[in-house]
Amino acid sequence: MRDDRRRHRPGAAPAAVVAGVGGHLPPDVVTNDDLSARLDTSDDWIRARTGISVRHVASPGTATSDLAVAAGRRALRSAGSPRVDAVLVATMTPDHPSPATAPEVATRLGLGDVAAFDLGAMCAGFVYGLGVASGLIAGRAAERVLLIGAEVMTSVVDPQDRSVAVLFADGAGAVVLRAGTPDEPGAVGRVVLGSDGARGELLKISGGGSRERRSGRPPVPGGEYLRMRGREIFRQAVERMTDSSRAALEDAGWKSGDVDGLVAHQANARILAALGAELDIPAERQLSNIAHTGNTGAASIPLLLAEAAGTGRLAPGHRLLLTSFGGGLAWGATTLVWPDVTPGH
Ligand code: UT7
Asked: What is the Å distance from ligand 1's center to 164 Cα?
């Protein structure tokens, strides 16, 4: 029998509970054939090695905040209330190096002078954001938090780098979290987080920061682009998501067989298959939309939740295991029983 440890103790700190969800994909798409027309790659290679067929990209002039506002608005509609106390934007592609993107998003959403800040944990940003939002709610600094993952990854992709250009794409997803109890549907379980700065070189944008600016040397051409050591990142992604997922399951008192849906960062279909095999969660209990979204960084998990809730793939009561991994390195995992929420339009 399942040993469920999500019991509410009177007087305990409030838990973060999902109250709304929304996603936004920009309308323009790039197919594998479009990429093959300008790069030494092919539809067959991309499908076989990544599972991606098509991806959405922001039109010229569209920035991360534009996608974040669209997704955030939908999540607020889904939650049925425009009131929040804090806005967190998880992104590695902010509109500007400074200030953060979140205050602009909060203002454009008409949320007033609420707390607003960005969170940089690359593709792990949304799961890190769940941890931070849970902390804000548990510490009673906020009762309601809008957490958005939003990226214009195409702004940091070197169009000539085929291993990166085929993977990354644009989009945004958001959830509203409210104060509740740990035993109710939608309550976010303990968020297991980790990092490994010794492997920061594996996925990095090296230019544009204080390290380069104070080096006394001119900027390195191409330093503004995301560089990736794909094979090593692949291995690390599987290992770190597996380990953090096991810790999150253990904390919830769940076994792999209790999981109705594995909601992992959509990095590569082969990473998802390897993770599923490690965790003993077969393909039919994994959620995926990478075939038509590509890797949307910090947006991938909330986008997938919004899409799956909209199609009915995700139903109230489903026990979900969420896990993500990105550059830093940074990773995390948590559990969640899906609540009765309908994505906002
Ligand atoms: O969001 C979190 C961070 N990102 C990830 O998690 C992504 C992790 N990594 C990956 O998804 C994969 O490593 C890639 C899709 C990037 C690459 O797949 P792979 O199976 O690991 O290929 P590889 O890097 O080992 O390269 C195999 C071959 C190489 O050619 P040689 O050296 O064997 O001649 C590459 O140059 O495939 C070549 N290659 C390509 N060929 C056609 C690399 N990219 C492409 C391409 N089209 N787009």
From this structure: 8
- For ligand 1, is residue 326 a contact (CB within 6 Å)? yes
CB of 231 shorter than 6 A to ligand 1 = yes
| 167 C-alpha to ligand 1 centroid (Å) | 9
- Could you give the residue numbers annotated as active site? 123, 265, 295
More confident residue, 3 or 238: 238
Q: Quick one: which atom of ligand 1 is closest to the CA of 233?
A: 8
pLDDT for 4 beyond 70: no
The dihedrals phi and psi of 127, each to the nearest 5 degrees, come to -70, -40
The CB of 203 under 6 Å from ligand 1? The reply is yes
CA of 270, closest atom in ligand 1: 11
Indicate whether residue 157 lines ligand 1 (CB < 6 A): no
Centre a 10 Å sphere on the Cβ of residue 60 and count the other Cβ atoms it contains: 6
- Are residues 162 and 38 in contact, defined by beta-carbon separation less than 8 angstroms? no
Nearest CA to ligand 1 atom 3: 326
Cα–Cα distances (Å) from 335 to 101, 188, 238, 307, 319, in that order, read 28, 6, 18, 18, 7
In the chain, domain spans: 1-345
- Whether the predicted model's global pTM rises above the 0.85 cut: yes
Q: Residue 118 in contact with residue 91, Cβ under 8 Å?
A: yes
DSSP 263-331: EE--S-HHHHHHHHHHHT--GGGB---HHHH-B-GGGHHHHHHHHHHHHTSS-TT-EEEEEEEETTTEE
Query: What is the Cα 205 distance to its own chain's centre?
Result: 19
> Can you tell me the distance from the alpha carbon of 266 to that of 305, in angstroms, rounded to the nearest whole number?
12
The encoded tokens of residue 36 equal 């093959």
pLDDT digits (tens, 9 = 90+) for 122-175: 999 999 999 999 999 999 999 999 999 999 999 999 999 999 999 999 999 999
Give, using CA atoms, the residue closest to atom 20 of ligand 1: 49
Task: Tell me, using a 6 A CB cutoff, whether residue 235 lines ligand 1.
Answer: no
Model confidence at 291: pLDDT above 60: yes
Q: What is the predicted pLDDT for the residue at 1?
A: 44
- For 1-345, the fitting CATH number among 3.30.750.24, 3.40.30.10, 3.40.47.10, 3.40.50.720 is 3.40.47.10
